[in-house]
Predict the structure.
Amino acid sequence: MKAIPYGRQHVTDKDIAAVVEVLKSDFLTQGPKVQEFEEAFARYVGCQHAIAVSNGTAALHLSAIALGVRSNTKVLTTPISFAATANCIQYCGGQVDFIDIDPASMTIDIDALEQKLATTPKNTYSGVIPIDFAGLPVDMARIKTIADKYGLWILEDSCHAPGGYFSDQTGTKYFCGSGSFADLAIFSFHPVKHIATGEGGMITTNSKELSDKLKMLRTHGITKDPKHMAGNDGGWYYEMHQLGYNYRLTDIQAALGISQLTRADENLKKRKLIAERYDDSFKGLPIKKQKSSEGHAYHLYVIEVERRKELYDAMKRQNIFCQVHYIPIHTLPFYQSHGWKKGDFPVSEEYYKKCLSLPMYPTLQRDEQDYVIQCVKEHFDA
């Protein structure tokens, strides 16, 4: 059996043709395809504004700046995410605090969040960053109620969940990144994500003010828009209004993103079918899996098992390359040097001891998945 990774991009002839068309055009860097991608993505998640940037980390960083994070800002998130989720607050000189995860959903423990805020002096925290981990949408309606009560902004990390959604008590669907509850949401277009542009990211919002601010921040804080300028010396004229960055997406990447977006829903259906086969095949085994939902986007299929390293190594010997998502952020050396220590968030740490992400991507073939399932079962039979 050829190597089976935990995630894999899928680039079609149509994708390649879209990129070649741009390579033959007048624009390679930020041009008309970027705006086209932004508009298509905004329609896809149901928001009013989408701002394309160079990667998911840039999306987090610019969001933190736009939301006003500075040296006296404290922000809450969970330890189970990629380090960038917390790092974006550090970039701005702010301070990160953590809320443990719920053992069933593997996302932020909303009860613990509410308790933390209720027992902390008012105005200690400015914002919260919930993560739609593995593609499972967080109950953003409840997060919004809590955030409003305590005066917090919300930055939704939806890197794992384009196309994911949750339903409220009335049955209304809310897509991840729709802006219905969060001030801003961010997405990543890394090759193992639902939509791959090589590198790339998107910020979504329903705030015109935040959208305008983010568009300026991604281009050095510079504008050529007359309505934002104090003067105008001619067609060449521009003004820098704030310290920004070069976090732009290229038209090459945007063309690939537009093409990939056209089959996003089809790929979501494939991911859900793969998850259902895993679920059915693992019944009766000592395997814990993440809580499911109708709107789960299944970026990852995460299980928890005893003797995780033994299973990881056994799968690797069989040419199956699983992954661990994630090492708890508070246990990383940088964060330990800032006062965090092992034992601070026991649910996250217990999860880390047992978690393993199995191969999950739309082009995973049935015989390949059968082989993965067989190897998992052999581990428990051994």
Q: What stands out?
A: The CA atoms of residues 216 and 222 lie 6 Å apart. The radius of gyration is 21 Å. The chain is about 35% helix and 15% strand.
